[in-house]
Design goal:
two-stranded antiparallel ribbon; globular; ubiquinone binding; 7 helices; mitochondrion; mainly alpha; 2 strands
């Protein structure tokens, strides 16, 4: 039933890049428009949440190989690519991450008066890094990305 959607969702760059856009857009907005910044941050996170359910539904758990494998060209002049894929636990961790980030932004909606813009920008960056940890089976990035999640803290 969901086979026609497999082509649309086989590329996992959407859930990886959507939080990046959600953190770049508020950078251009002045601090005086804090309500708009919070609204953009709050809208970008549920948009990221809308991506993972289809791969999770189509995920074949008895299969031992990586699924939804894709490539993102990172440094084309050096022929360095990022490989994305899902195996085992990541479908559930990505759904949990994308579910909790909008809740975290909502909880801090009124309590962050002085650094509201930085607060809203840090969560999509953290969301990007947490999704990238579970989606990229590259061994070198597997050791770098979990530590980079701590930077926005």
């Amino acid at each position: 039933m969901l086979l026609p959607f497999r082509e649309c969702y086989s590329d996992l760059s959407g859930p990886i890049l959507c939080p990046v856009l959600g953190s770049i857009i508020p950078l251009s907005i002045p601090n005086s428009r804090i309500r708009l910044i919070r609204f953009i941050g709050l809208c970008a996170s549920p948009l990221t949440f809308s991506y993972p359910p289809v791969p999770r539904i189509q995920f074949d758990s008895p299969t031992a190989e990586s699924q939804f494998v894709g490539t993102i060209r990172w440094l084309p002049y050096e022929n360095i690519n990022l490989y994305t894929g899902i195996d085992g636990i990541p479908p559930f961790s990505v759904v949990l991450t994308t579910f909790l980030i909008p809740i975290c932004i909502s909880v801090g909606w009124s309590s962050t008066e002085s650094y509201g813009k930085e607060y809203v920008i840090a969560f999509p960056i953290r969301e990007f890094l947490m999704i990238a940890v579970s989606r990229m089976p590259d061994l070198s990035l597997f050791h770098v990305l979990p530590e980079s999640v701590l930077i926005p803290m």
